[in-house]
């Protein structure tokens, strides 16, 4: 047989086979579209069981002469493949980096993301509460607090409300069921009982403010069943309305953050003060905003007066020795005036979008020195 192969010699690798294999591998390398595909081509050619490795493995069975020529040819092919792999890897790496850079562009004009510790908001009522207490603390006032559930005696009787006064009606006040002795607890309708407790437990001079929650059976656009009040009380020998006017004037300037504000004191009536006054401040009412310290309009912001002698007596103080003055205002109302919130009920709806708009940054704590609402 003419084409019988020598039994003891491995099959010669025709140069055309080798160059076909090489060009097949090189075209596979060129076609590899990413590094993973390229690695698959490398393993198929140069890996342990790869096509080029298989060829190299045949060298061992060749005679030296044959090994020299075949070996050189195979190694040349291997070098060509190795080089092509490296070149293609560089190209793919660069392309991958380009794609990554294109996908990960950073917009340096974007605002910084807020740190989580600063992402919450302080409710405007808490803010105003803190502003009030900062202002009065700066004037030497202590802050007194008391229970929301009060006795009829502390909420009404000691404050000179006569039996049968309309404020005592079931209609206006939230009462608990009567006890066996007929007495009824109630939700305080003002923070005055805190001042009663202060007079009963402390010796004058007394300078306190009493911020807190208060309750009345009332619900419409401008009234919620729960609201907030701050009352102030000064008791000393020789306290008079001049002191009261100065304190309230200083308070209004500090709170509304203006250099001056005109105030108007009108006669009024409260059971617990005599004389009693209502206080207006001058302002300019625009379409959507109110400005203080300018303008020709008047806005009522609080009630006040000299503590009624009956109240002093009921609280264990001799009205011939001590005089006092007191005032009260709605925290919700002055918060709405200062920060332009128009709907009282939204203060209590816990709507996070509303809070994001009207709320305050948690680390900006109001102080007179550092700025109340900076
Ligand atoms: C208002 C008026 C006022 C008081 C509260 C008071 C407390 C005691 C004695 C005397 Cl213990 N007075 N508080 C005095 C005058 C007015 O509040 O319009 N509040 C929203």
From TrEMBL:
It is found in: Cytoplasm. Mg(2+) binds at residue 274. One of its GO terms (molecular function) is magnesium ion binding. Its cofactor is Mg(2+). Binds 2 magnesium ions per tetramer. Pfam families: Phe_tRNA-synt_N, tRNA-synt_2d. Keywords: Aminoacyl-tRNA synthetase, ATP-binding, Cytoplasm, Ligase, Magnesium, Metal-binding, Nucleotide-binding, Protein biosynthesis. CDD domains: PheRS_alpha_core. It catalyses: tRNA(Phe) + L-phenylalanine + ATP = L-phenylalanyl-tRNA(Phe) + AMP + diphosphate + H(+). GO terms for cellular component: cytoplasm. Belongs to the class-II aminoacyl-tRNA synthetase family. Phe-tRNA synthetase alpha subunit type 1 subfamily. HAMAP family: Phe_tRNA_synth_alpha1. This is Phenylalanine--tRNA ligase alpha subunit. It comes from Rhodopseudomonas palustris (strain HaA2). The gene is pheS.
